[in-house]
Amino acid sequence: MHDDRLREVYAVAYPRLVVQLVGVTGNPAEAEDVVMEAFARAVPRRSSFHDADNPEAWLRTVAVNVARSRWRRMLRWAHVLPELVTPTSYADLPEERLALLAALRQLPATQREAIALHHLADLPVAEVAFTLGVPEGTVKARLARGRAALAEVLTDSSKEEDHARAD
Amino acid sequence: MPELTDLHDLASDVRERVVIPPYDEVTRRVRARRLRTATGGIAAAVLVVGGVGVWQSLSPTAGPPGQPAGQTSGQTSGQTSGQTPLPDTDEGLWRKVVDGTDSHPFETEGSTDGAIAVVWRALEQPGPTFALVIREADGTVHGRRLDEPFDLTPLPDGGWIGVDGGYVATIGTNGTIAQVRGSGPSRPARPGDVFVHGEYGVNMLYRPSDRSLSTMPILYGDIADGYVTPDGELVTCGRGQGGVTLTVGDKIGPNVPGATCVLAGRGDDVTMVGLGDDPDGGIPMTGLVVAHGDQVVQPRMTTMLGGVTSVLITPAGTTVITDASTGDWYLLGADGAFRPTDRKVGQAFLAGERLYVTQYGFMNAPLSWSDDDGRTWHEAQLPGNEE
């Protein structure tokens, strides 16, 4: 019974959750892995998953927490740590999208999570707040700071590209 | 130039490319975890009866009692089990991670008795794999495959407390692992308590004497890090009014600018490093406070590090602060004078009386260690990379 429900949710929610987590992790391969990990963690937690009003939101919270835990460790070594091998299905992502993912990775984690879940995943502020476990006001503040920071990072990247072309 | 509005296009581009793996991949993960847990239970029973570490030991001198040198408990269990899956401690399993695709140390931490632990990560498909490898001070190596990596905090009497999400366990330097269950209500700190970063930013105090966890007492500010002195005084730092603040017991100390902070402690010496929150994602050093008992000083610094990877205090009282992103680091002697550094380093940690550093820019490179606060250096392999 539980397994049937999880299978149903898996078939429908897996792609959506990967899209939502791509912004949080800044990497499609990491996003697929943390979403898969969230489903695997749902299996032994039958009661809490089964009782959840919104199973997809439950899975999203678990996936975000797995991503956070890994991000914290990776911060120390961001400059030398190799990335997960990106599945070939994402190999043809346009350059601009890759640049956007790279820019997202440069944001502080709290701002990146808010920006990804609200602007990329289209979740309302209330749902972002629920997922991240913070008040809505905090999400709004992180969104404002995150938008400004993202614009600055993207502008800087663009200037660097212009300089490189000029050279 | 991409813009914020392009996030919608990014979402649809990714959505078009997501290939849903068969549901079997979920059940494969769950099954593998259950089998490993079950086998771990069997191994734990062996530990109680035989008094032998459940982890695989690769002693350079001799194997565990009752086994020929070079033959390990893990191999024996795996070979005689037929259909029984190999225990996590089987050398083949953890060695596969250490030797795996783009394998690298994910976490490296020393123990007060001289042992070193490394959490290795390999970038396999469909997901990364992890292993914990410990080398004791006498060279004996223990390994274990992990489902998820631990965050390691050294314990005063040796070994570590490991946190993986909501799972907390003590990890002995001889390879034993024991879950610490639950977290009780807050209580005053006592000598021997250890500050632990828990899940979702919830900090805890671990009491080794009765293997119990408690939530942190309510204190001034937003606690980011902490340390318990040998006298049981709880020292914390966190964001308060006007920056980050060092608090000793109920005495609120000096402020430095910053959004968060990191603490290191040894005996009655404490170092607090303030950290900023740059718009570009950087977390630069913003200030330094050093306390020797009641004497608190803010050393004058002409330049701050661009990032902070590790902060520690050596047995001689020298504060070490490293930035693995640039290789730059500071050595602040107990006399309050900065010492010049002649090499770039990555992370720094203590194992016993030795100061260890990882090589700047090369995660798999041998470690360097010093027992005279960086004046002379010696080389040591990473646990798992022994020849």
TrEMBL record, chain A:
InterPro entries: RNA_pol_sigma-70-like, RNA_pol_sigma-70_dom, RNA_pol_sigma70_r2, RNA_pol_sigma70_r4_t2, RNA_pol_sigma_r2, RNA_pol_sigma_r3/r4-like, WH-like_DNA-bd_sf
Domain called RNA polymerase sigma factor 70 region 4 type: residue spans: 98-150
Pfam short name (any one): Sigma70_r2
Example GO biological process: DNA-templated transcription initiation
Residue stretches making up the RNA polymerase sigma-70 region domain: 12-73
MF terms (GO), sorted A to Z: DNA binding; sigma factor activity
This protein's UniProt keywords: DNA-binding, Sigma factor, Transcription, Transcription regulation
UniProt xrefs under Gene3D superfamilies: 1.10.1740.10, Winged helix-like DNA-binding domain superfamily/Winged helix DNA-binding domain (1.10.10.10)
PANTHER family named in the record: ECF RNA POLYMERASE SIGMA FACTOR SIGM, RNA POLYMERASE ECF-TYPE SIGMA FACTO
Family the UniProt entry places it in: Belongs to the sigma-70 factor family. ECF subfamily.
Name of the molecule in the record: SigE family RNA polymerase sigma factor
TrEMBL record, chain B:
The name this protein goes by in its record: Uncharacterized protein
Bias (Low complexity): 68-85
Species in which this protein is naturally found: Nocardioides agariphilus
Region (Disordered): 59-93
